[in-house]
Write a structure and sequence with these properties.
membrane, five-stranded mixed sheet, ABC-type transporter activity, alpha/beta, transmembrane, abc type-2 transporter like fold
Length: 431
């Protein structure tokens, strides 16, 4: 009887606490849905369609074999061909700036060397975006499959040509057999032969020279996944620390400190601005510590002048926006416990969707779209423009121009959130 009464009392307390109910029953389902969409789409299990890889193709050989190779490559639904790019340099720039995931360059002389058994064909060049390492291996495999689809006739005809040249020629029956076999191969290819299985069973047929678009000519290594997560984890925990610090405003209200401060003639506006400035500086220091640690321990390229300036600019506006976001949540809540519950839900969801937990390049298209509505998504866009997509030969003006959009969005968000926080804080002026 006593146990039943205690259980009933605990249940009533839980039902009255809507935040606890949400954390207990709703938040796990929200996170399950997010990760099911991400990894369900990745595995092709119906959770959503992956965003196709955007690929630029440059055909320097302009031959029948190179055309068949590229046609076979882009038959894959996982690839989206970007047209209008005519030079290799332009294609590399497009990949480096994040407007394409990879560029495929078929070099001149590819078909002639491919059909010549006495020489090795030049390697197909694959330039990929280091921010999306999946692009390299996906396109590498599809290129090998496409080579098996395009090559049989070339190899067979070259072999018969060599036989005629060095072996006394082929008979009429042999030539008829060659024509029949050619028609059979063409029919199987048009009918959707499993060239991928053939590629997997026979190994590589063509050589592929894969390089990251950010690879340096001076031999220095380009960015790594450490650079990505230095920004991703830094932004997520910045949000947590800012909302935790903003809870001091609610503590001041509970202790009566805020009331005495307002009665002394200091308006709520200066109080909010003072807290915002301190929290923003605190957040910038937190981000700075994260990047310095990544530099010292994991080799992040922080001493480069452009990287240092770019990270500082993006870090300042990110910290300012996070501080304004925290003040907005604090002004919207009545107690620190309420702030803690609400901020945990909002920050975890934004971090999952915005790329702080899982890189956005493996997310399906719908998740990439949703990330544009998150704080984490825009902050990461700014940091990645500096750490991943920066042109090593570009100027400081080029770098600042590349971060102009995410910086502008974060600055606008800062102003909007401060205005909303000020309006919500009017309740304290009536105390």
């Amino acid at each position: 009887m006593i146990l039943r009464t205690l259980v009933r009392a605990d249940w009533r307390l839980l039902v009255r606490d809507r935040g606890a109910l949400f954390l207990t029953f709703v938040l796990p389902l929200v996170f399950f849905t997010i990760f099911a969409l991400i990894f369900g789409g990745t595995a092709g299990s119906g959770g959503g369609d992956l965003k196709p890889l955007r690929v630029v193709a440059i055909d320097e050989d302009a031959s029948g074999l190179s055309a068949k190779l590229l046609d076979g490559l882009f038959e894959a639904a996982a690839l989206d061909r970007l047209d209008g790019v005519e030079t290799v340099d332009a294609a590399v720039v497009l990949v480096r700036e994040g407007d394409a995931d990879a560029a495929v360059v078929v070099p001149a002389g590819f078909e002639d060397a491919f059909g010549d058994f006495g020489s090795t064909p030049p390697a197909v060049r694959l330039v990929f975006d280091a921010a999306n390492p999946m692009a390299r291996f996906t396109i590498d495999g599809l290129l090998q499959a496409a080579s098996f689809q395009a090559a049989p006739l070339v190899l067979m005809e070259s072999g018969f040509d060599a036989l005629e040249q060095f072996g006394g020629g082929a008979t009429a029956e042999q030539r008829a057999a060659l024509d029949a076999l050619s028609a059979l191969i063409e029919g199987e290819r048009d009918g959707g032969a499993d060239t991928g299985a053939a590629a997997g069973g026979m190994g590589a047929l063509i050589a592929i020279d894969a390089t990251a678009a950010t690879e340096r000519d001076d031999g220095e290594s380009g960015p790594s996944i450490v650079d990505y997560y230095a920004a991703a984890i830094g932004v997520m925990f910045l949000l947590f620390s800012m909302t935790g610090a903003a809870g001091a405003l609610l503590e001041e209200e509970e202790r009566g400190t805020l009331e005495r401060l307002l009665m002394s003639g200091v308006g709520i506006g200066p109080v909010l601005l003072g807290h915002w400035l301190f929290f923003a500086l605190l957040g910038f220091a937190q981000l700075a510590l994260m990047f310095v640690f990544a530099w010292l321990v994991f080799g992040l390229d922080l001493l480069n002048a452009q990287v240092l300036v770019g990270v500082s600019v993006v870090g300042l506006v990110t910290a300012a926006a996070a501080s304004a976001f925290a003040l907005f949540l604090a002004a919207a809540c009545r107690t620190r416990a309420q702030l803690s519950g609400l901020s945990t839900v909002v920050i975890l969801v934004m971090s999952a969707v915005g790329g702080s937990m899982v890189p956005r390049f493996i997310m399906p298209a719908i998740m990439n779209t949703l990330s544009s509505f998150t704080f984490n998504g825009w902050a990461l866009d700014g940091f990645l423009a500096v750490l991943w997509q920066r042109d090593p030969d570009g100027s400081m003006a080029d770098l600042l121009g590349s971060v102009a959009l995410p910086v502008g969005v974060l600055v606008g968000a800062t102003g909007l959130l401060l205005v909303l926080a000020r309006r919500l804080a009017r309740r304290w002026e009536t105390v």
